[in-house]
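Can you please make up a whole protein chain along with its backbone structure tokens because I've never seen that pairing?
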Amino acid sequence: MEIKAILENIVSDNQLHAKWLNTLSYMENAGAKKISASEHKEQVNLIILKHAAEEHRHAYYLKKQLDKLDGDLCKTYTNEELLAPNHTKFYLNALDVAVCRYLKQHFNLTGYELKFGAYLFVTYAIEVRADELYPIYQDVLTQAGSKVNVKSIILEEEGHLEEMLNQLKTFSPDWEEHANLVIKIEQDMFSDWMQGLALQTGIAIPAVN
């Protein structure tokens, strides 16, 4: 399934585009809350605070982009105002659960250490995904001559990815091997999400690239 084809179809329809922006906003907000939930009660470093704040700001920024589309659209995160709402709402939670299970098995982590490990690997996988998805979306926006843009988010997500890499290197000398397995877990969930989007937006292509 071509991600670009799906996004072109979405951007060409104002209602779908509004729901897409709102869906991205929901996911950024969910990510910010996940980061905050992983915090230690006392040992909170600057990177975690920065990352959570920027994810919240991305959620706000994407919501504000709705003003550039015609109509009074998508004021909430109810299912009716999201694309593929079931996939969207379970995507991050399902990834978090799967990664926690993996880390328990391979590192025997519990408590805060498990939460923090999951934060590192889940966030890394999401940043890798964002590093692919947002530039494709921006290309589609530019080609369509849309007033919406996500260039500032692209720059910040690139910074987030570098920060996660630095933290993972201190987490485990074999971090890359484990991160690649987490990426595969995320890929399956992303593929399911794209299938959900394709069905809702009228595109039927068999496999995600």
About this structure: The helical segments are 3-11, 14-37, 46-65, 85-107, 111-144, 151-171, 175-201. The chain has one domain: 3-201. The two ends are 6 Å apart (CA to CA). Residues 111-144 form the longest helix (34 residues).
